[in-house]
UniProtKB/TrEMBL annotation:
Residues spanning the signal sequence: none
Keyword line: Mitochondrion, Ribonucleoprotein, Ribosomal protein, Transit peptide
Keyword Mitochondrion attributed: yes
InterPro entries: Ribosomal_uL1-like, Ribosomal_uL1/biogenesis, Ribosomal_uL1_3-a/b-sand
Name this polypeptide is given: Large ribosomal subunit protein uL1m
Family: Belongs to the universal ribosomal protein uL1 family.
Entries under SUPFAM superfamilies matching the protein: Ribosomal protein L1
Length: 344
């Protein structure tokens, strides 16, 4: 009997605990549902919090991107570098500021590099320009393609040109002035079948609509009035594109060949001046200088930074100086007006 009473005492409390927990569950659920009914859930609050977090992240990213420009003019050494100039001939390049050379000096250095490297004398010389495409407010200069006449051409071959015209007299004039092929819309199928290929394609304004099937085929070579490949004066266009040099803007950079290294230094200088002048003409001078920096190099040499100020036309230099002076005067007048107001 004693054993049975002990086992009963052990089992009864366990059953009571199980009974009360089972009874308590529905009470808690009902209370929770009633609480939820009293206070409705706001689903839009979480979305607003996420938007605030995104805004804070974008503000932080902008703060990181907009780094302060440090003025190193009055410092004993550039910020973050070892010194203004190396003492020895052998040094680590990243510890010193990049030297900027005069254009004539840089060309002489490229010629000396070629002798030391035993590389070909007729290797191409390239120029790389970084452009400031910004205009007023949020407007920018659109990327462009331009064709110019270099003072001293480095090409031995004449460009192959196709002229689209429906006028037989214009077609005859085009062939007399050096066009490889001249014709109307019948040339479209031959070009699509790769029976006819050319370096440039010129057209009269009346036939451009019939050439639309060639747009995907020709892409950047498709005739456009902005590039000067659409017009009525066919002899003038042929004179430009037969021996002209074409360059294009990719993003904010112009990278094009200007000469060969075996050409005289004066010829290379004149070609560089011609390209820089043509590039600078695509942005109004009132919005500031268009070219931020210039680098020249040959195929086997390193890039040399050159002074861009000496390459710009004299008129543009004067305009840039007058714009800066006008801005400075405006700032000084504004500061004087603020001081007088404070004194009053």
């Amino acid at each position: 009997m004693a054993a049975l009473s002990r086992s009963a005492l052990r089992v009864v409390p366990r059953c009571q605990s199980l009974f009360f927990t089972c009874r308590a569950a529905p009470v808690s659920c009902s209370s929770l549902t009633a609480h939820s009914q009293q206070q409705p859930v706001r689903s839009y609050a979480a979305a607003a919090a996420k938007q605030k977090e995104k805004k804070e992240e974008t503000v932080q990213e902008k703060a990181v991107k907009e780094r302060k420009k440090i003025d190193d003019k009055n410092r004993h050494k550039p910020y973050g570098l070892t010194a203004w100039a190396p003492v020895d001939d052998v040094y680590i390049v990243r510890h010193y500021p990049r030297p900027v050379y005069e254009t004539s000096v840089a060309i002489e250095m490229l010629k000396n590099f070629q002798k030391l490297d035993f590389s070909p004398e007729n290797q191409p010389v390239y120029i790389n320009l970084r452009l400031d495409m910004k205009l007023e407010k949020k407007k920018k200069v659109d990327p462009f393609v331009s064709t110019i006449h270099l003072p001293h051409s480095f090409k031995s071959d004449i460009n192959k040109i196709v002229v689209f015209t429906e006028n037989p007299d214009q077609a005859r004039i085009a062939m007399e002035n050096g066009a490889a092929v001249a014709g109307g819309a019948e040339l479209v199928e031959k070009i699509l079948a790769d029976e006819i290929t050319a370096d440039f394609y010129l057209a009269e304004p009346d036939i451009v609509q019939k050439l639309l099937p060639l747009k995907n085929k020709l892409r950047k070579k498709f005739p456009k009035s902005k590039r000067g490949s659409v017009g009525m004066n066919i002899p003038k266009m042929l004179a430009l594109f037969k021996s002209g040099h074409e360059y294009m803007v990719e993003d904010i950079y112009v990278n094009t060949q200007v000469a060969t290294l075996d050409m005289p230094k004066e010829y290379i200088l004149k070609n560089i001046h011609a390209i820089v002048k043509d590039v600078a003409s695509h942005k109004p001078a009132e919005f500031g200088p268009f070219i931020e920096r210039a680098i020249i190099c040959s195929r086997s040499s390193e890039g040399l930074h050159i002074k861009i100020e000496e390459l710009l036309p004299q008129e543009e230099k004067k305009e840039h100086v007058s714009i800066k002076a006008h801005c400075l005067r405006g700032k000084t007048k504004a500061s004087v007006g603020c001081r007088t107001r404070r004194q009053v």
